[in-house]
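QA checklist item 7 of 12: single-chain prediction sanity check.
[x] sequence parsed
[x] length recorded as 356
[x] structure emitted
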Amino acid sequence: MTTKRLRVLVLVCSTRPNALGHTVGQWLTQTLTPSAERLGVDLVPMAIGDLGLPFLDEEEHPSSGVHQHEHTRRWSRIVDGADGFVLVTPEYNYGMPATLKNALDYLGPEWAFKPVGFVSYGHTSAGTRAVQHAKQVVTTLRLVPLGATVALRITEVVQGDRFAPETRHADAAQDLLQELAQLARALRPMREREHPSSVTGPLPGSYARRLAPDDAPHVTVLQRCCWTEEALANNTLALPALHETPTDVRSWLADWHTTGLWQDGRLLGMVRTRRTGTDLHIGRLAVAPDLRGLGLGRWLLHQAETAGEECLRIVLSTGAASQRNLALYQRQGYVPLPDTHQDGTVDLAKSVVAHT
């Protein structure tokens, strides 16, 4: 899994004018900001009333992921980009607000395998019956509700015109955020594997996705493991992959299209591609040493080659003495080019077969 910060949406669910929800949301965000920084969490305050969502008006079922209206597409992008949610909700007649139910019903896959916490407020039950109502819905959407909650009884936290929760309420909010962060990170591999942009990998439970700059620490470790053998085979330590820092890796991850193969939060292998004119360049093909011989390198190579459909030639390079690599590439149709570079590497290429 990546080391990137978590993005947590703090969603005020009431749209009633002058409702207490905005005040509760502001208190919650201010209370949690110091802990959020320590936990690597970015809190994103938002209100359902600002989303402009009418009652569900999409023709396609939400599970299809097909959205015709811009208000739905915007909501989809917001939810898809979040790692977890805190819902600030009142209780209306033993249930959650219709606005919250409507916002949940708009989407499907975007919610899956993300934690959701509740901060409720109300009179007799402090909003807890709204939370119980909402939990029946969110679990159907494969959201994962937290055990920790914050329940605010209005008569206890509102003194005249002043909103003044007690210390125990702030402590409960801290517990909620701590649990949410732990669960969000634990669920990240499941979210990534099920994301529409991911590709099912060759091993059980594995998946491939595009690597981002935040994946640099994992890539750095994988490179150090894989290029040690390359250095020994070619009798040189002058290999960039052995010396790049995470900052160096972040830089080239932003420029290359790099595919990573993951399983249970571990980066198993990777390959990167970039087009130059009519050539597709493939590089940094790597598989964790303990997983070699399982066909992962060949699978990653084929994934990379799919980016070359509009190119005339695919080019890659390896050490002139890297017999394992040379054998793999030649079995896949690559032919060594005549010249060996001064750094001891050799280029290989193969023509792209045009499909009609």
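[x] summary fact logged: DSSP finds eleven helices and 15 strands in the chain.
[ ] second reviewer sign-off
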